[in-house]
Amino acid sequence: MKTCLVVDDSRVIRKVARRILEDLSFRVEEAGDGSEALSFCRSSMPDAILLDWNMPVMNG
């Protein structure tokens, strides 16, 4: 199963994206900002990343 990392500071947007991606047979991981996403990618690189450009802490 392919993995997609969804990165957005909006919990609602992450939830909507998760539902769509799971319907497309992706395993979904989430991060609330660019810093969390970078940490995730350092430990396990996803097959795809869907990210917001403007976020607090660290932009996409």
Please outline what is shown here.
The protein has 60 residues and is α/β, with parallel strands linked by helices. The protein has helices at 11-23, 34-43, and strands spanning 3-7, 27-31, 48-51. The chain has two helices and three strands; from the N terminus they run βαβαβ.
What can you tell me about this protein's structure?
The chain is an alpha/beta fold. It has a single domain, classed as 3-Layer(aba) Sandwich (Rossmann fold), CATH 3.40.50.2300. Helices cover 38% and strands 23% of the residues. It is built from 2 helices and 3 strands; from the N terminus they run E-H-E-H-E. The chain has helices at 11-23, 34-43, and strands at residues 3-7, 27-31, 48-51. It has a 3-stranded parallel sheet. Strand 1 (3-7), helix 1 (11-23) and strand 2 form a beta-alpha-beta unit. 17% of the residues are buried. The mean pLDDT is 94.
Secondary-structure map with pairings?
Elements: E1 3-7, H1 11-23, E2 27-31, H2 34-43, E3 48-51
Q: Separation of termini?
A: 25 Å
Q: How do the strands line up in the largest sheet?
A: 2-1-3
Helix coverage percent of residues? 25-40%
Shape: flat
Under CATH, the homologous superfamily reads Response regulator
From the 3D coordinates, which CATH architecture would you assign? 3-Layer(aba) Sandwich
What order do the SSEs take from the amino end to the carboxyl end, as H and E? EHEHE
What share of the residues does DSSP label as strand, in percent?
Answer: 15-25%
Structural class: alpha/beta
Strand count, sense and barrel status of the largest sheet are:
3 strands, parallel
Number of domains: 1
- The averaged pLDDT comes out at 94
Query: What is the number of strand segments?
Result: 3
